[in-house]
Amino acid sequence: MFSHLELGAYDILIVLDHSRHVVRLFFKAESYINPALLHTKGSRNGKICHQPPPFCHLDKKRTAGIHFDKGLTSNGHFSRLTYMQEHGTISIHTENIFPIIKKFLYSDHEIFLRELVSNAVDATQKIKRLASLGQYKGELGDLRVKVAIDKEAKTLTISDSGIGMTAEEIKKYINQIAFSGATEFMEKFKEAADAQEIIGRFGLGFYSAFMVADQVEIQTLSHQEGAEPAHWTCDGSTEFDISDGNRTERGTDVILHINAENEEFLEEQRIQAILDKYAKFLPVPIQFGTRKEHVEDGEDEEGKKKWKEVEVDNIINTTSPIWTKSPSDLKDEDYLDFYRELYPMSEEPLFWIHLNVDYPFNLTGVLYFPKLKQDFAMQRNKIKLFSRQVFITDEVKDIVPEFLMLLHGVIDSPDIPLNVSRSFLQADSAVKKIGSYITRKVADKLAELFKNDRKSYEEKWSDIGLFVKYGSITDQKFAEKAKEFLLLTNTKSEHYTLTEYKEKVAPLQTDKNESVVYLYTPDAEKHHSFIAAAEKRSYDVLLMNSPIDNHFISYLEQELEKTSLKRVDSDVMDKLIQKDEPIELVLSEEQVTQVKDIFSKAITKPGMEVTVESLSPDELPVTVTMDEWMRRMKDMAAMGGGGGMGFYGTLPDRYKVAVNGNHPLISRIASLDSEDQKAQLAKQAFDLALLSQGMLQGEALTEFVSRSVSLI
Q1: CA-to-CA distance for 550 and 256, rounded, in angstroms?
Q2: Average pLDDT, the chain
Q3: Residue whose C-alpha is closest to residue 291's, from 316, 264, 271
């Protein structure tokens, strides 16, 4: 378009860019140009000299970056040359962007390598996509991304054979930070079904390189036919230089000149660890140098195998992890192998769920049900979040409901919005839909297992019960579905659904107020005597020994109509489930007062309140209990419960000492003449009650043993 320009009386036409830098020069064939006086770095004026021939010698050194267009002549036509040397300012709204990037944008400096490798993978996927659409006709060749360290030069280089860039594209995609290359690319190829798989050439993540580098270079050659290689360099300020590049094959090299504070990123072990963390499942092969490997090398004279050491490419990643495959193409062993790769020191999982949905959002992944330990806090943060196979974080609390964080595995979604660091998640409608979907899939899986093989489900209940209870407490949608497969377990290791258990105990364990009472114990061994007392009445006792059962008990009382739960040692049995069948007290009022006074004096342990109760003669003479409500408050305070629970943890323990007025031993104590004997027997009966609950220790236990020997 420039070959027929009329310059008239002028020998030279100078073309400037928006920053008034010389970009092109048009001149008559008979004009002479001194290249030494052309535009140089930092200059804002192109100088042209009309001189005799001696000044027209264009040697290679002085004309580096000057290109002549062939086929242009004089006689009204003009030759054109381009001197590709440009100095400019990065198009950003504030010059403080780099300090922000270096100090605040990313929480961990190692993220830079994830960003740059991800960009290289994106560029590689672009060229593959263009080739599949017929937009690129050339040979794809080796498409692996290479990471290389040069300790002597103090550089770290990330190389790809992807789409590459022209000088103009560098200015567009690198210098103009606010512009996303994905927008134009997606618009151009929006007819492609999977165009959304391709993200922008370079986002703000590219600039994370300046967290660890004093200078960053780009050597790139675009895939476009006839494209010239380009070289971009920036020292972390808002100024840049673009000149001719030296790359001869399609693709891009990003070269980081690592600064003194971050020379750890020139160590092979450090880079290997970062790549293992973030690039383990990228869809394009990532090579980091080479590694030694032992291979078979025939047999020795005795017929034994020989081995030799060979050097092979160190490929970091598996490009097709199982969550990208169809479940129908996978076997159980594939899922187990993947779990072992993710968690090499963990026990085998119980079962798993393969997630795969593309509407109204995109989500793939595999979630495993681990064998949960009682200390479930240690099991959290085991779900790894990926975006297009790039590891992002294992902090997924803003994506999945809290109870699902007990699961292990991987979720991958390009629809989960991330901030510029790709590390902190923002709650929005897409995230909520994803969380709801995962919750539904988990509930459906559990319901299916329970329905299809209840026996197997019950055998796994000790491992998954904590998870189901936690989900029921914290997630209403899950709780609705969980009513079908949530189990209650009694001290005989029998399992019941909520409906089944109520039908079992209601006939005998309904009190005089028509409220069904569920008895429970956190420790069947410790509370054996109380459980035995319950079983004498044909009552059933539940086992509630998980870390969250205090909260689960409150949940059940809210969900179940006219139902209360009482710990089996929180009162004497006849008081736990009160009937309209009062037992007559054999002691007179005077004897009741006398017995209460005897025990009050004999008991020196603080926090003990003595009462005389009308109980069955078969019950123990003395029972020590703590009020159900107060015990719950103190247990929740011990678990770190909020809402003022901590106050109850500071209160001194208070117990109720229930003296069975109908027991023969109590009548005997009341009839004794010796005050010492009364006190000794009262103390002995009280210590026996403490001993039955494991509350007799230290000096008190020693005195009890001595007293018991003397009484014998």
Answers
A1: 55
A2: 79
A3: 316
SS3 for 70?
A: coil
Q: What distance in Å separates the CA atoms of residue 564 and residue 515, rounded to the nearest whole number? A: 7
> Rounded to two decimals, what is the model's pTM?
0.70
Tokens of 703: 């005195």
Q: What is the dihedral of CA 389, 391, 397, 402, to 10 degrees?
A: 60
Look up tokens 């009472």; give the residue: 517
Return d(Cα 244, Cα 82) in angstroms, integer: 11
Quickly count: other Cβ atoms within 10 Å of residue 331's Cβ.
Answer: 8
Q: Residue 60, class by beta-carbon neighbours within 10 Å (0-12 exposed, 13-18 middle, 19+ buried)? A: exposed
SS3 458: helix
Cβ atoms 200, 228 nearer than 8 A: no
Cα separation values, 188 from 133, 181, 538, 633, Å: 12, 11, 77, 64
CB 139 within 8 A of CB 125: no
Torsion angles phi and psi, residue 317, rounded to 5: -120, 160
CA-wise closest residue to 281 among 227, 340, 341, 228: 341
| Backbone φ and ψ of 404, nearest 5° | -70, -15
Cα–Cα dist 41/236, whole Å: 17
Dihedral-angle region of residue 76 (phi above 0 means left; psi in -120 to 50 means alpha; beta otherwise): left
Give the contacts of 211 (CB within 8 A, at least 6 positions apart).
Answer: 101, 102, 106, 109, 111, 112, 262
Residues β-bridged to residue 564 = 517
Burial (CB count <10 Å: 0-12, 13-18, 19+), residue 712: exposed
pLDDT digits (tens, 9 = 90+) for 257-307: 999 999 999 999 999 999 999 999 999 999 999 998 888 878 887 878 888
Rounded Cα distance, 577 and 77, in Å? 110
Whether residue 571 contacts residue 535, with contact meaning beta carbons closer than 8 Å, is answered with no
Residue labelled with tokens 């064939």 = 29
Determine the Cα–Cα distance for residues 519 and 340; give it in Å rounded to an integer.
Answer: 42
Q: For each of the domains in the chain, give its residue range(s) and CATH number, in order of start.
A: 12-83 (no CATH), 97-286 (3.30.565.10), 322-461 (3.30.230.80), 486-576 (3.40.50.11260), 589-711 (1.20.120.790)
Helices (H) and strands (E) in the chain, counts: 19, 26
624-657 residues labelled b (16+ CB within 10 A) or e (exposed): bbbebeebbbbbbbeeebeeebeebeeeeeebbb
Query: Hunting for tokens 């830079």 — which residue is that?
Result: 112
Identify the CA nearest to 144 among candidates 117, 174, 114, 166.
117
Torsion from C-alpha of 324, 330, 331, 334, nearest 10 degrees: -30
- Of 123-132, 170-179, 359-368, 512-521, the one with minimum mean pLDDT is 170-179
Question: What is the per-residue pLDDT for 86?
Answer: 72
pLDDT tier, 102 (very low <50, low <70, confident <90, very high otherwise): low
411 three-state secondary structure:
strand
What is the C-alpha separation between 502 and 556, in angstroms, rounded? 12
Q: Which of 43, 93, 96, 111 is nearest to 237 (CA)?
A: 96
For 485, the token pair is 């497969």
Distance CA 544, CA 660 (A): 28
Residues 218 and 270: their CA atoms lie apart, in Å, by 23
Residue 300 pLDDT: 80
The C-alpha atoms of residue 387 and residue 512 are separated, in whole angstroms, by: 60
